[in-house]
Amino acid sequence: xxxxxxxxHLLNYGSHxxxxxxxCRLCEPGNRLFSVSxxxxxxxxxxxxxxxxxxxxxxNLLVDRSALEVAEAFAEDxxxxxxxxxxxxxxxxxxxxxxxxxxxxxxxxREFEALKERVAGKRLGFRRVSCINVTLSLSEISGFSTDxxxxxxxxxxxxxRVVIGTLDLNQCVMLPDEIPGRRPEGIGADFARxxxxxxxxxxxxxxxxxxxALVAKSKIIAQQWGISDLYxxxxxxxEPAKKLYMKSGFIYENDEPSWQARFLDRPxxxxxxxSLPITYDL
Length: 282
Known about the structure:
Blueprint: E1 6-10, E2 37-39, E3 69-73, H1 76-90, H2 100-119, E4 128-137, H3 138-141, H4 146-151, E5 153-156, E6 159-171, H5 189-192, E7 193-201, H6 210-225, E8 229-235, H7 239-247, E9 251-255, H8 258-263, E10 269-275
Parallel strand pairs: 1-2, 7-8
Antiparallel strand pairs: 3-4, 4-6, 5-6, 6-7, 8-10, 9-10
Helix pairs in contact: 1-2
């Protein structure tokens, strides 16, 4: 399973939202672990994903933490790898699904185009968006998971690497279809508030601290942006995700009304908050 915050078609950026077909019992998002993604509100798509058991993979690879790189992604091939990991994490397909690979590519292309637009600052309502990835050298995992190393590979500085964890850091007042944070109040809300979304880690690499590494890096970048209040939405029954965020310093602030969750056809969310120290250059 993947560590999920909320998929971006994952967080419903207007026309970018995607999801499972309406009225299809088999088409439910799977693998939510860490938060809520932009894939949250379900709309009709061609594929028929199925919900999978959110228990950790029994054979998880232990990685050399010194070989990890946690950084913002700007190159298109790395953004594509991140989009592929998100689709791989948030959607599971029946083996009998017709043209499943075509469906996966369709979803990945939708997320890739939307991700490029967000990172480029072209999405209305967002001051800034950063895609933050955890990557590992291809040689470290190529013998363990062929699918992961093939699907989420990119070339960075002449070295083949694999995106094994990803999230978005969004500087904005609120995320689409999500309850907004309350802090800071007044005129600072449009530049001092940020949200995490689309948090996921490859299922083969759970329990390696990758989720914590992503959150820690996002806090550093958020501070550089002048963010004082950081938020994340998480499904109310998502115990692993709540544990991750609370151990990372987040606390409960609010929860989604039941009517809103029913209207959006999704599990009810909690809104978690943490404050970030503000530093001033003298």
